[in-house]
Amino acid sequence: MTALLDTDLLNSVLGDTIFAGKIQTFSTIDSTNTHAMREAQNGAPHGAVMVAEEQTAGRGRGAHAWHSEPHAGLYASIVVRPSIRPADALWLSLATGLGVQRAVENVTGLVADIRWPNDLLLNGRKFAGILTEMNAEATRVRYAVIGIGMNVNHGAFPPELQETATSLRVELDRTIDRSELLIATLRAMHTEIAALMHPQNFAAATERILDRMEQKSTWVRGKRVVVEEAEGYTGVTAGLNALGFLQVATESGIRTVLSGGVREAKG
Ligand code: BTN
Question: Fewer CB near the terminus (10 Å): N or C of the chain?
Fold first, then answer.
């Protein structure tokens, strides 16, 4: 088992990033996102990070739980205070998916796919997810928390996840140094967050995210999907709109996926 939570090491190795001196580690916690939202409410600064070895109530998108096996995964949440509108929060999620994809490739050589908005997949199975939550006024985000969960050294999954989940260890047939992966992920996030922080560069940064999503995700265009929204519908993905939302071509025209996720349509 590789150690993850050497707080001093993390704070020093990441000394040249926005996270320097702001990383807190926990051996067990309910949810790093829940804790980070609470800390942000109490004034935690931009770049504060909470990492845990175990979550007893890890949360996923929607009302889902996040399976958080102790000492096997990466469970981390980042507090950010960007000058953006609530409608632009999706960019944080898309940028995080791209950042995690890059970090995983750098550390393992594995090139993950991104299922919009930000599930990371290997061989069609999910190994990482991102939960972005925020506290906002109508016109501005006060703070957001970006939660990243990664199945790293999991050897097996509970029955309900066996068909859909994987881990880096399962894919590579070896264990991964979680500390190295956490550092690579936070380095990638330093770059992604910096690009979205400056109002004068925001439009260029989002253009770049749209381009990268087109290149780095097979789900953005030409994939037949079921949209898990309201009554549910089927169509073929047709790119992202200017706000980063997925477009789906259906028999009744182009529809925009607003709140739901997508899964591959069979047959
Ligand atoms: C999803 O794909 O549904 C998102 C999963 C996000 C899980 C991470 S683990 C760290 C952080 N704390 C949580 O409770 N959730 C996120």
Answer: C
Domains and CATH numbers, the chain: 7-215 (3.30.930.10), 220-264 (2.30.30.100)
**What would the pLDDT profile of 105-138 be if each residue is shown by its tens digit?**
999 999 999 999 999 999 999 999 999 999 999 9
d(CA 223, CA 178) in angstroms, rounded, equals 32
Smallest CA separation from ligand 1 atom 16, residue:
147
Tens digits of residue pLDDT in 229-259? 888 999 999 999 999 999 999 999 999 998 8
> How far is Cα 9 from Cα 113, in angstroms, rounded to an integer?
31
- Atom 3 in ligand 1: which residue has the minimum CA distance? 60
The 10 Å Cβ neighbour count of residue 47 is 21
Distances (CA, A) of 225 to 125, 237, 251, 258: 15, 7, 13, 15
Residue nearest to atom 9 of ligand 1 (CA): 149
Q: Which protein residues touch ligand 1 with a CB less than 6 Å away?
A: 31-33, 55, 58-61, 64, 66, 75-77, 119, 129-131, 147-149
d(CA 67, CA 92): 23
Find the 222 Cα to ligand 1 centroid distance in Å: 28
Whole-prediction pTM value?
Answer: 0.96
The whole-angstrom separation of Cα 40 and Cα 143 is 7
- Partnered with residue 255 across adjacent β-strands are 248
Top mutation candidate among 131, 132, 146, 150 for ligand 1, by most atoms within 8 Å of CB: 131
Give the list of residues 6+ apart from residue 159 with CB closer than 8 angstroms, or none.
none
Atom of ligand 1 nearest to the CA of 119: 2
